[in-house]
Amino acid sequence: MLDIQKLKKNSLSEALTCSLSVSDSRGEEIAKLVPIGNWALNDRNLLYLFASWRKTFNRFFLTQFETSAQSTASYLKNLSIAQSNRIFFAIYLGDNLIGHMGLSNIVKEEALTDNFIRGKSGGHSDLMYFAEKTLLTWAFEELKVKTITGIVMSNNFMAMSLHERFGFEIEERHHLKKIVSKNSTTLEKCDEIEATEKFYLDIIKLHKSSFLASLNI
């Protein structure tokens, strides 16, 4: 399996040399997936945008808290860059940072989708489809995984519809209860009688064969 730590570069120029090219159906490049490394920790614009997008889409995360550029830098350093089983990509449209996506829990033949967010509009109308296609293709071909799992709130309709286009199917559905503490709000799996939310936590899964079928391969 590919050593993903080698993709986490110290400078943006180095990171660009190992970025993943996102192409449309005609094979024309429409964006790049640039792997996050130490270079990102000194990019104030990136840290600000990542924090802002996390705040905007907080409701679709199991743990909801106040974000900042500082907390984002700490997260990237300790929970992404330092983790050998995790890879995070910034989505660039030219020089314009528009979103991010990644994979975590990469072990043997499995991986987990991680932090899919489009924070800005612009570019190809189906850019996120082609970005996810690029990431999934890379995971199956380069990381040699056979299954990819996702964790999605059932009310996150855009994310679910995007994943379904590649053949993701719901494997499990869980009720959720909200737990509020001083600095954060957490949604936890629970029995139906304890549920406080009307939506669910869906565990979705994609097998390589289903992915290839979705691409008519």
What does the model show?
- The protein has helices at 12-17, 44-56, 69-81, 127-141, 157-164, 208-214; strands at 20-23, 29-35, 63-65, 87-93, 96-107, 110-118, 147-153, 169-180, 184-190, 201-207.
- By secondary structure, it is of the alpha+beta class.
- The protein has a single domain (4-214), classed as 3-Layer(aba) Sandwich (Aminopeptidase), CATH 3.40.630.
- A ten-stranded mixed β-sheet has the order 1-2-4-5-6-7-10-8-9-3, sandwiched between helices.
- A hairpin with a 3-residue loop joins strand 8 and strand 9.
- It is globular and about 50 Å long.
- The two termini are 23 Å apart.
Q: What are the key terms here?
A:
single chain, 29% helix, alpha+beta, 35% strand, 10-stranded mixed sheet, Aminopeptidase, 6 helices, 217 residues
Largest sheet: 10 strands, mixed
Query: Which structural category do the helix and sheet elements fall into?
Result: alpha+beta
Give the count of structural domains. 1
Number of strands: 10
Helix content: 25-40%
Task: Kindly provide the name of the CATH class.
Answer: Alpha Beta
N- to C-terminal distance = 23 Å
Strand order of the largest sheet: 1-2-4-5-6-7-10-8-9-3
What quaternary form is this? Answer: single chain
Average of pLDDT: 96
Spans of at least 5 consecutive residues with low confidence: none
| Backbone shape | globular
